[in-house]
Amino acid sequence: MNEQSEHLSNAQIENYGDRTSGAGPDADREAEQVEAHLQGCSSCRSRVLDFQRTRFALLADPKQPTDRPVNPASSPDCPSEDDLRQLAAGLLPEAVGAKLTRHAATCDHCGPLLRIYTEDFSDDFSQEEQAVLSSLQSSSARWQKKTAQQMLGAARATSAGAKTGATSAETNAGAAIAISPAEGPSALAGRSPLFWKWIIPAAAAACALIAFGIWYSQRDTPEKVEKLLAQAYTEQRTMEMRIPGAEYSDISQKRSGEPESILNLPASLRKSAELIDSQLKKTPDDPNWLLLKARLELLEWNYKQALSVLDKIDDTKTLESLEMRTTRALALYQQAELEPERRAQTYGEVINLFGKTLQSTPDDPTALFDRALACEKIYAYECASADFEHLLKIDTASGWSEEAKDHLNRIKEKKNLER
Predict the structure, then answer these.
(1) Comparing C-alpha atoms, which of 154, 181, 182 is closest to residue 168?
(2) What does each C-alpha distance from 377 to 46, 164, 333, 374 come to in angstroms?
(3) Fewer CB near the terminus (10 Å): N or C of the chain?
(4) Cβ-based burial of 70 (10 A; exposed 0-12, middle 13-18, buried ≥19)
(5) Coil, helix or strand for 192?
(6) C-alpha span between 279 and 50 (Å, rounded)
């Protein structure tokens, strides 16, 4: 064993990473010495983590592409994502964890997910993320001690249930630390070091999992910002066409160039702008955040900026996505409204984009409503009527359906006038 001031050897890292339960007293003593060293050496902790990732086949081969994409389709043999998170956090029994690890090593759905969760549970947080974790109640020693005591109390109850024939304790975390009520607090003092070797890490891991869950739920994700943009649209609807996820509201039309005090903008819109700007400063080429940036511009009728942002996206998957088609169609709609010399041609592009969406999802209410509007703009009344009538079959009692009925009535009046 190297001195505390030195680093662990590669052999020590490998032996520690490959250790299994029941390896013998010598292996246990070496593991304890390694753990003592790891407590004060962040460099060796990182090496152990890297070894485990490599062992799990979660790190890409340097000769291969660095990103291993997640296959969205899982197989019947795949565990749940909750199981993978618990595996990354070290909360599963060794036998179960080893089985899931072997599966993840050869699965293009679970392997990349486990790699992501493993990295999320590492201590490589940004300063901002670390500040969030540090502020959590679960990061305090006092809270962790209290939680450990509660776990012990739950274990006592589990033990009592086991005496009446219950068997679930054998697979419960509390089963490993079950203490009979008759033993009382004095029994804890007499527990062997092996007992505390298991219970303390278990309590710490539980605290870490709770902290991670809270931190993860508070992260700024594209999905959260997309909801904020939909909320901003609903609070201050500035265009006739719909955007995905937005509730119905009456329109208050706005055109590019109209002055608007930032104080008059919905709080959800201001928050979206802050988060998008912050994320693009970190990763300026991220296609998800660029797409949200374009949608943000459209809520302010800045279609030129929106189209410019969309042109920066070169990710093939994003370019072929429904979200991309919808955002570009909305930008072209605004262009057609503000550049009448190319109106018919531009609205034709809008109709084609929504048509591609309706080929794969024919009951998409947003695409039906928006394509109907575009058809109506170029006097293609049959197309507009068909889409509005289709929409009314799947949406019979919302503000959007009432607006669709109004359009249908106006179309009928116009058709009568043309006769």
Answers:
(1) 154
(2) 61, 75, 10, 5
(3) C
(4) middle
(5) coil
(6) 27
How far is 296 from 273, CA to CA, in rounded Å?
Answer: 7
CA distance 175 to 161: 11
Strand partners, 237: 251
User: Which two tokens mark 178?
Assistant: 């079950």
Q: Nearest 5 degrees, angle CA 368-CA 373-CA 379? A: 125
- Report yes or no: 91 and 209 within 8 Å, Cβ to Cβ: yes
In angstroms, rounded to a whole number, what is the distance separating the alpha carbons of residues 43 and 55? 18
Give the DSSP letter of residue 136.
S
| Distance of alpha carbon 156 from alpha carbon 160, whole angstroms | 6
Residue type, 404: A
Topology (CATH) of 222-418: 1.25.40
Q: Does residue 289 contact residue 280 with C-beta atoms inside 8 Å?
A: yes
How does 365-385 read in b/e, with b if 16+ C-beta sit within 10 Å?
bbbbbbbbbbbbbbebbebbb
Task: Please provide residue 145's backbone torsions phi and psi, each rounded to the nearest 5 degrees.
Answer: -65, -40
- Between 193-218 and 81-89, two packed helices, what is the crossing angle to 10 degrees? 130
**Phi/psi at 381 (5° precision):** -70, -35
Side chain identity, residue 158: T
In angstroms, the CA 224 to CA 275 distance is 10
Domain ranges of the chain: 10-125, 137-218, 222-418
Residues making up the chain, counted from first to last: 419
How many helices (H) and strands (E) the chain has is answered by 20, 0
Going by pLDDT thresholds of 50, 70 and 90, the confidence category of residue 227 is very high
Whole-number CA gyration radius for the chain = 29
Each residue's pLDDT tens digit, 321-379: 999 999 999 999 999 999 988 899 999 999 999 999 999 999 999 999 999 999 999 99
Secondary structure letter of residue 169 according to DSSP: G
Q: Which amino acid is at 110?
A: C
pTM of the full predicted structure?
0.52
Judged on CB neighbours under 10 Å (0-12, 13-18, 19+), 50 is middle
**CA–CA distance, 230 with 269 (Å, rounded to integer):** 9
What's the token pair of residue 286? Answer: 């991220």
Contact residues for 281 (Cβ-Cβ < 8 A; gap 6+): none
- Answer whether 59's CB lies under 8 Å from 50's CB: yes
